[in-house]
Amino acid sequence: MSTFTSTVTLTQPAEKVFNFLADFNNHKGLIPENVTNWSSSYNEAYFEVQNMLKLRLKISERHPDTFIEIIPVEQPPFEIKLTWEIKSGNDISEVTFTITAELNMMMKMMASGPLQKLAEHQTQALSSLLK
Asked: Does 2-22+59-129 carry CATH code 2.40.50.140?
């Protein structure tokens, strides 16, 4: 398994961060420009990554104010799991976004850079949206 992670500290209470991330409709503001055809509901999102793949994801677990797990609805080209972990104290939240992917050697060479950039983009966009 390959893991790509990014962490950001927000001056927001965990409840506010969790409520934002727990609704896929709010994730549109977190996606990079190369993601197109975004559609979402509270629990699911569908989108296309330019010239690469189409994904339909669902939120499979929610633990109030601390954890969200996202998995594919349909089988993607490789196994993937996305998680948001929130640690809080005194209206400050440390938020970690993790992408875990089962990549063969060739896919790892091609996808590692973009997946790490995606993790970093997501946390930076979250930071901008929840100032």
From this structure: no
